[in-house]
């Protein structure tokens, strides 16, 4: 990702969160905008989960991204450690 795109997305995240801070429930339009933003960042695998997280965290997309990245990292680490166990066991 280029630094311009990252800066733009960061600004867009701040604007979306600022718009939503004082409301409790996401409108369908806001939800769709945030889902589209998640897609543009590569989080397109599970829209049901993305929507659930956005609703749970009141549209706080930065928190949702943090959770998605952490889960993704855990999956990668688990796959790595499992593959290393298979190498050790097979030797």
From TrEMBL:
Q: Which residues form the UBA domain?
A: 25-71
Coiled-coil intervals:
none
The record's InterPro entries line, in alphabetical order, gives: UBA, UBA-like_sf
Q: Which residues form the signal peptide?
A: none
Matching PROSITE patterns, A to Z?
UBA (PS50030)
Stated name of the protein: UBA domain-containing protein
Q: Which organism is it from?
A: Rhizophagus irregularis (strain DAOM 197198w)
Which taxonomic lineage is given here?
Eukaryota, Fungi, Fungi incertae sedis, Mucoromycota, Glomeromycotina
């Amino acid at each position: 990702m280029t630094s311009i795109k990252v800066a733009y997305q960061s600004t867009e995240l701040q604007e979306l969160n600022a718009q939503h801070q004082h409301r409790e429930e996401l409108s369908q339009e806001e939800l769709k905008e945030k889902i589209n933003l998640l897609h543009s960042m590569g989080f397109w695998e599970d829209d049901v989960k993305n929507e659930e997280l956005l609703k749970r965290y009141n549209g706080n997309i930065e928190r949702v991204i943090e959770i998605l990245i952490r889960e993704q990292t855990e999956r990668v680490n688990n796959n790595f450690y499992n593959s290393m166990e298979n190498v050790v066991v097979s030797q």
